[in-house]
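Exercise 7.
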Amino acid sequence: MFLSGIEGSPSLEVVNLVLQKRSRGEKVVSLAIGDPEANTPKEIEQAAYLAMESGEVHYVPSYGTPGVRRAISSKVRRRNGIKAEEKETIFITTKMAVYASLFAISEIGYEALVPNPGYFYSEPVILSGGRPVSYDLTDDFSLDMTEIKKKTTDKTKAILVNSPSNPTGRVLEKGELQELYDFCCDRAIYVVSDEAYEDLVYDGVSHFAVGSLEQKPDRVISIFSLSKSYAMTGWRAGYLVASENVIYLVNKFLENTVTCFPPFIQRASEYALDHGDAIIEAQRNDYTTKRKLTVEKLSQLSGVEVNDIQGTFYAFPKFRSNNLSSTELSKRLLSKENVAVLPGAAFGEKGEGRIRISFSERIDELEDGLERIGRFLSDTQ
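Solution. The predicted structure, written as tokens, is:
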């Protein structure tokens, strides 16, 4: 069957193992999942509640409500420098946005370049009829244009980038994105830019939106999320900015799949985009504290090299532990210490020798989990 060649989600596999252990009464610390421990702020919940109370519970346009599309256009102009009109926006969950955009720009047998290590983009490429081609990042996880040019063929339709990056924590700089954009324009290739963690950056690092290089959306497909910035993971709220033609094709994808998204979620998203700057700042401050704790604890461990966490709420440290693979290490951490992390190999071959640690948990849980990791590593050196 077509789906038989698709790998299951490494994150959800770990979640299931954690839930099984907890169902047996075991105390498990999960540092595996990128889900903010904070609940969605009350004012965003209230916006959704008032929308439901006023009868906003019926079908709406697949493109999104006029209100949320206006808010999206206003936000990307104001904060990202992307010169997009409402007709160049669409409301869509972030993960589905990757699938839909690839369906919109691809043809059967196409190729798309995906980062290594990087998020799980190969599956959307395969499901949209294409072949994923990995391009290696440099040792500091920046773009290697020599590698990208080497991997590009006449079949390449898209190059996917993720900044700030899950899992590496790297924030791509304007210069490297400019070089990528110029190359893609010359070759008529799309840049599909996942910017879900745009607001979670630290130590004076700035997020740069590659879509801001265009006078109007054309070769760049920009994908954003409300999940991390506003603690709205369960709402499945996000949006895509692209050329009017790509938006039209993405809308056809939605019309023939989910039809539309709940109007009350869109009303809450509209409120967040228009009034949520203080919420973002509070989220960033919280993660700044947790990032500091994570770096301090990991830096004290022998045989551990901490990566430079410029953004997101993930650490991606390199470890040395008696030749254990990252998968074996992750399994033993869960088995012996009841702490869950994700193996670096899940993010590509270049992730081997690393683990991904989420510091989105409560700070007491985070500290406990880091101590368990340290105890295990010290015993296996």
